[in-house]
Amino acid sequence: MSLVKADTIVLGAGIxxxxxxxxxxxxxxxxxxLDRGAVAGETSYGNSGVVQSEAVFPYVFPRRPQxxxxxxxxxxxxxxxxxxxxxxxxxxxxxxxxxxGPKARHASALALRPLSARSVAEHEAFAGPAGSxxxxxxxxxxxAFRTERGRETALAEVEELKPFGxxxxxxxxxxxxxxxxxxxxxxxxxxxxxxxxxxxxxxxLVKSYADLFIARGGRxxxxxxxxxxxxxxxWSLAAGEATLQASEAVIALGPWSSDVFRGLGYRFPLGVxxxxxxxxxxxxxxxxxxxxxxxxxxxxxxxxxxxxxxxTGAEFARRDDPPSxxxxxxxxxxxxxxxxxxxxxxxxxxxxxxxxxPDMLPVIGAAPRxxxxxxxxxxxxxxxxxxxxxxxxxxxxxxxxxxxxDPEPYRxxxxx
Length: 416
Ligand SMILES: Cc1cc2nc3c(=O)[nH]c(=O)nc-3n(C[C@H](O)[C@H](O)[C@H](O)COP(=O)(O)OP(=O)(O)OC[C@H]3O[C@@H](n4cnc5c(N)ncnc54)[C@H](O)[C@@H]3O)c2cc1C
Known about the structure:
Layout: E1 2-5, E2 8-11, H1 15-26, E3 31-35, E4 50-51, H2 65-72, E5 79-81, H3 86-98, H4 102-117, H5 119-130, E6 141-145, H6 148-161, E7 169-172, H7 173-179, E8 189-193, E9 197-198, H8 202-215, E10 219-222, E11 229-231, E12 234-239, E13 242-246, E14 248-251, H9 257-261, E15 271-282, E16 292-294, E17 299-304, E18 307-311, E19 314-316, H10 326-336, E20 341-344, E21 350-356, E22 363-366, E23 373-377, H11 383-399
Parallel strand pairs: 1-13, 2-3, 2-14, 3-10, 5-19, 6-16, 14-23
Antiparallel strand pairs: 4-9, 6-8, 7-8, 11-12, 12-13, 15-18, 15-20, 15-21, 16-17, 17-18, 22-23
Helix pairs in contact: 1-8, 1-11, 5-8, 5-11
The protein binds flavin-adenine dinucleotide (FAD).
């Protein structure tokens, strides 16, 4: 058994863990990242690839009775409920519902804005030295609508975002067709968010950041984070033939963070909103230049290295339920009359799990009852966006540096 000593063990090699590791390393910490699988092998692998610098308001649970009924009957295509999971997930859904009122939504927006506003700059600060700047495209993304009601929703959002400094361009049908000529005639217009970056390969982007971490002297180990133990000197973990020892540990396990924090006596209400993807070819020469959301139906088409990636909205299910094609199967024909998708390119649907707290804010900061333990999880629909910027905040907190924003809204103590 060899002994591996470090200052900090970061648990999880998704975008969140790798980003925290890079920021800690830049502040002089000797960091080991531990994962049971490959870098960006889970949620950070299959997302839609949008660094959503325009993101301000969290997705909320419907509040009007008619919308609740529609969602409950699985008639709202933007989400899908797996009924067999309801008894298990109902307490979390109820807390999410309670946090979805106008006041709580606004409070979450005020806390999310400092993160999203800095998100592109923090990605660029990694991608430059990592040599992966070409994986960050600068053509923004589009929310396209089909109906007058969709147009009103999109324009209301534009107005709501203006006070937060979010820039966008409203497009009529012809203007949208000039940018994305292969969208169908059913599409009436859109809103182009011009500042966000997008990536054609989220996993390759995170891997390039991990390579940078290693090139700068960081270490990556394979092991099971559930073996984490507190010792007199800090934290220790048996990983294969090695025993890892450090004075600090960071839980950055995304949807699996609960597998470790529960064992330490914490009961954060971490739920998941699952989502699927599949790649398609384009019929003839049909392609997209940037990700496009079909607003009324809540799925997104993103041009990726492997083809056009269709990603779904939220499936409400238990984290470990087997995959189901129910939501995807409803959306695929709808997507086919929005854009001329050709053949499916993957043998199976990819399943991911968005790690969500009911207020849609991540938990970032010190563990209240354990010295040297830190949290960085719960990045909801926006982990690709928030990974680098929350890594910065965490590293500033851990090293006692002045923080770029008030860390109060993200503290673990908000859950008692
Ligand atoms: C369909 C979909 C579309 C999305 N689109 C976007 C988007 O466009 N923009 C955006 O910003 N966000 C998007 N997201 C959200 C984003 O992907 C996630 O918030 C983000 O990837 C979470 O990153 P993470 O590092 O916290 O978790 P993960 O990437 O899941 O990393 C957690 C790591 O922990 C490891 N792990 C788990 N258990 C253990 C264990 N016991 N021992 C050791 N290691 C363990 C896993 O192997 C994994 O590598 C989307 C998500 C989905 C599902």
